Amino acid sequence: MPDQRKAPDSNTTAAPRLRRVERSQVDPNPRKLDDLIGTDHDARLVWDLVGDLDLEPLYERIKAVEGHPGRPPVDPKILVALWCYATVEGVSSARELEKRCYEQDPFKWLRGGIDVNYHSLADFRVDHGDWLQEQVVGIVASLMNEGLVDLNQVGQDGLRVRASAGAGSFKREAKLDEHLQAAQTQWQRLEEEFTEGASLGMTRQQAARRRAARERLQRLEQAKREHQKVRAAREARKKGDGEQTRASMTDPEARRMKMPDEGFRPAYNVQFATTLDTLVITGVDVTNSGSDAGQMDPMVEQIEEDLGRSPEEYYTDGGFSTIEDIEQVSARGVVVFTPIKEAKRQQEAGKDPYAAKRGDSPVVAAWRHRMGTEAGKTKYKQRGKCEWSNAQARNRGLQRFLVRGLKKVKAVALWFALVQNLFRAVALRAEMTV
Q1: Minimal CA–CA distance to 80: which of 106, 46, 105?
Q2: Is the pTM of this model over 0.85?
Q3: For the chain, which residues make up each domain, given as ranges?
């Protein structure tokens, strides 16, 4: 029989048949939060490690308590775990961390259904520097008690990290005074406007303007103070040099430093002291000095105060080699291994750089002799191990600070030290069980 089906009429326009969205239906594959990541995921390890920290000081600061009004804050354990895991993943921005908390399964698992925002994340990261310092030291002390870490050999190295300030923000005194006067005028004008409209209440936009004007005025006032400090220091070194002094209007405590690529940019100098055999960070400091000179004794003193004893041997590169530091550290009973500056040039000139010089104290003469012996040279080859802490921090995102001021910058540096020590503790304890 002939085919009875009709061919489609080419002149007729038919609506396309589509599968359209229907969002009222239930997800056929719902998952519990605990199923978002595997049982051996690093996020679970971070959560367990954070649980071993002393979180009680953080809980004591919470004002919302049972039986009294007040909105309960996010559990500090969640915030600590989020920042520890963010550090592992190389996330330095609070906004980026907030984004990942809602888009990536490990961060979703860590927050456990609790809402977080970038503002609270950013504040938490820099508000607990003292607690972070205690945790870094506490891990080292625990490992020492277990016999897994000692202070026989400790090395120190500096790491220059870009500051949150542009090169153009550095101004001389006259320009700072000009901007400061403008900021004071703006603040007074805004205060008058807010006083006149106080009865009507302050809008969020007005409050934001007022806060921004106040913060700008405070930064410029601090920039003026920092300018005076730097100017006095430069004048002390060379008369008339203070006229060239500049200070940053956006991050007054930042300084222009020579970076590894030989360029000069606003930065901070992060100092890590690390055990050479176990690669555990025993001390953290941050300065705004572009030189490592003079940084050795303050770090040894910090280790002594935190851990109750000084290192037996201390290793640094040539940037730390100052006679004053060598004498001070040696007076603590520490054997210093740091190179003699321009030793090669002295040898080429026919001089012995390892021989005692006129005016050398006994400890300085002993240091010179020690660095010239084969045993001393062999031992000094281990110093490079302390650079591992710097490399780890770089790999985990310590490329540029997004916060301003020495206090906040040091808090960020302590997060990197905390994460390194947490994971080193796991590795060292695992080695003991093998």
Answers
A1: 46
A2: yes
A3: 33-62+72-126, 136-164+255-406, 167-248
Contacts for 431 with CB less than 8 Å, ≥ 6 apart: none
Lookup: tokens for 148: 């897994």
Mean pLDDT split into 10-residue runs, the chain, 434 residues: 56 78 75 88 96 94 81 92 97 96 94 93 96 97 96 96 93 91 89 70 76 90 90 86 89 92 93 97 95 94 95 95 94 95 82 88 94 94 94 95 96 97 96 80
CATH of domain 136-164+255-406: 3.30.420
d(CA 43, CA 212): 37
